[in-house]
Amino acid sequence: MIELRTPAEIDAMRPAGRFVAEVLATLRDETKVGTNLLHLDRRAHDMIRAAGAESCYIDYHPSFGASPFGKVLCTSINDAVLHGLPHDYVLRDGDLVSLDFAASVDGWVADSAISFVVGTARDEDLALIDTTRRALAAAIDAATVGRKIGDISAAVAAVAHADGLSINTDFGGHGVGRTMHGDPHVPNDGKAGRGYPLRDGLVVALEPWFLQTTDELVTDPDGWTLRSADGSRGAHSEHTVAITSDGPVVLTDRSFLGVD
Ligand code: MG
């Protein structure tokens, strides 16, 4: 069921968006060569506790997950791109890091993801990250009242295809509200002008993610971490966006924290 939020409800979602932005900006700042992924998860856990927020991940147990997630942060490294389960791994020079974080504040959820490289970056990794960011920007631009879900999907796909990337549509954007995943699904590929109409008060997480040379995923033995089938690297950019008659409002915007 698709739920539309009143302006007052969208205002009530702002603290969640701001909290998620602050956590990702902090983790982005503190993640270096030599950082252990378990430390990042603990750091996020501490910030959740200090803020009186709630994790959306720790008890998360959908049909595709082998067991409850058990952590509060997704850490996907190099050829891992989504749902990376934090484990005892120390980041190395040139690692491509994707952090995905969702939390609930005052009963409202926000969800966002960022990709970056620690240490010396390869040009092709920076290019992939740039593509996901531009695809997210195009998705946000398309998230206006009167258009359709398919317009967002087509905008994402156009950016990916222009850069020669293929697209996996098994995982994509989604409605966000009292829970992390709601209707509508927002695929990262689709036809402009098709699908659910974008109405005032629709709140969605938009999340382009791409792999360098494949669109096929494999699941790690941990039951969660999704990797490229061919070992090529992945990147992911996500924001929670409220579609309003005044235009799209990026609830998880972190640019004011100096981290875009
Ligand atoms: Mg997310």
Give me the secondary-structure topology.
Elements: H1 7-30, H2 37-51, E1 54-55, E2 74-77, E3 80-82, E4 96-105, E5 108-117, H3 123-142, H4 149-162, E6 173-175, E7 182-186, E8 202-206, E9 209-211, E10 217-219, E11 226-228, E12 234-236, E13 239-244, E14 247-250
Antiparallel strand pairs: 1-4, 2-4, 3-11, 4-5, 6-7, 6-8, 8-13, 9-12, 10-11, 13-14
The chain binds magnesium ion.
Quick recap:
With 260 residues, the chain is α+β, with helices and mostly antiparallel strands. It has helices spanning 7-30, 37-51, 123-142, 149-162, and strands at 54-55, 74-77, 80-82, 96-105, 108-117, 173-175, 182-186, 202-206, 209-211, 217-219, 226-228, 234-236, 239-244, 247-250.
